[in-house]
Design brief:
There is one protein chain. This protein has 3 domains: about 1-95, 3-Layer(aba) Sandwich (Rossmann fold); about 120-185, 2-Layer Sandwich (Dna Ligase, domain 1); about 195-435, D-amino Acid Aminotransferase, Chain A, domain 1. It has 15 helices and 21 strands. It has helices at about 1-10, 25-30, 50-60, 75-85, 95-100, 100-110, 125-135, 160-180, 235-250, 285-290, 295-300, 380-395, 405-410, 415-420, 425-435, and strands at about 15-20, 35, 65, 85-90, 140-145, 155, 185, 195-200, 205-220, 220-230, 255-265, 270-275, 320-325, 330, 335, 340, 345, 350-355, 365, 370-380, 395-400. The protein starts with a helix and ends with a helix.
Length: about 450
Amino acid sequence: MRVVRACRELGLPSVVVFSEADRESLAVRLADEAVCIGKGPATESYLKIERIIAAAELTRASAIHPGYGFLSENAHFAEVCAECNLIFIGPHARSIRTLGNKSAARTAMLAAGVSVIPGSDGVLHDAQEALRWASRLGYPVLLKAVSGGGGKGMRIVHNEAEMVSSFNMASQEAERAFSDGLLYLEKFQINPRHVEFQLMADRHGNVIHLGDRDCSLQRHHQKLVEETPCTALTAELREKMGETAISAAKAVDYVGAGTVEFLLSADGNYYFMEMNTRLQVEHPVTEMVTGADLVREQIRIALGDKLSWRQKDIRLRGHAIEVRINAEDPRRNFAPCPGKVTHYLPPGGPGVRVDSHLYSGYVIPPYYDSMLGKIIVHGANREQAIARSKNALRELQVEGVSTSRDFAMKLLALPQFISGDYHSGTVEELLPELLASLN
């Protein structure tokens, strides 16, 4: 739906591919054309490259926007698009391949002079090699999947006794999730901030950043709430990190929208963690404070246009917060809750934006990510943004399925969040207390 709306603003017709489970999706209803490409499971539809290409040829499409899931960071898919004379609305396949392999990305960043988290020199061949690196770096360490993301294939290892079992579990999880069980190892950073920078680069050598986002409120490495600007950054540090992010993009000849993710320690040191070669779920907070339409710009760049802005044109105005709303029950260990939405009422008011595919009567399928939508709020300052976010969550009504709304309201009320003094471990530390308060 986000891409369909951007296409309409540009005067471009749009085609949505869908699975049988998504036949009643609002995106299918709103697009100019829609093509069914298979059954509900993603392996039988959204991950079938040949069916997506066939749909593009059938409808005489000239470009493909990969969204932010499934094949959005698949270098082979980008290559197939090029071979079929279809514009891939994203970076070059070679950039995706380099940055999609986190070990290769580390090597590229080191060559470019970008500070990375201390870790192994490349892929680990077995648990014994992991043990040798951990002994050299000191515990705790973090095992990470070379491919993929979303917290899968990651394990914190606190001591030598945990290594072998953690290595095997992380590798098996990565194999299931990404068909790639390779791992590497980093020194685990205790309670850092997770700060990312939005980048945009065109095919003419221009690269800019559009400010930062703090994504530190997480559970199991899954982002829950994002805000911009980050309360932990001074103007000087923000400028320095932004320049580093641009250097990272230039090191891999990056084109399109991308996000460089950093870990920021309490002493102000920051380290490159990874670069996402796609549009991020949390991109709306950047749009709210900059006034930029990132999806529209993605499409323009893919069509060969120059960036609409220079770095001096980017100004951050006010404060924005995004809260993710998922179809899951926090009271039952966040179990997914597919089913029929019997009633849906989105919030409104000044500075409130809702990105969602929901409507009353919609049936949430069981096959995909449980996110139902995002509540994005802008305020003149952080205090107003928090107040408006709380009001928006109070107004939101979703009936028929359990959602994470009440849990999100508890997060916004945390003293640590209100003060801006939180980190990537805050939610995990307070989780028992947060869940108890829901009962």
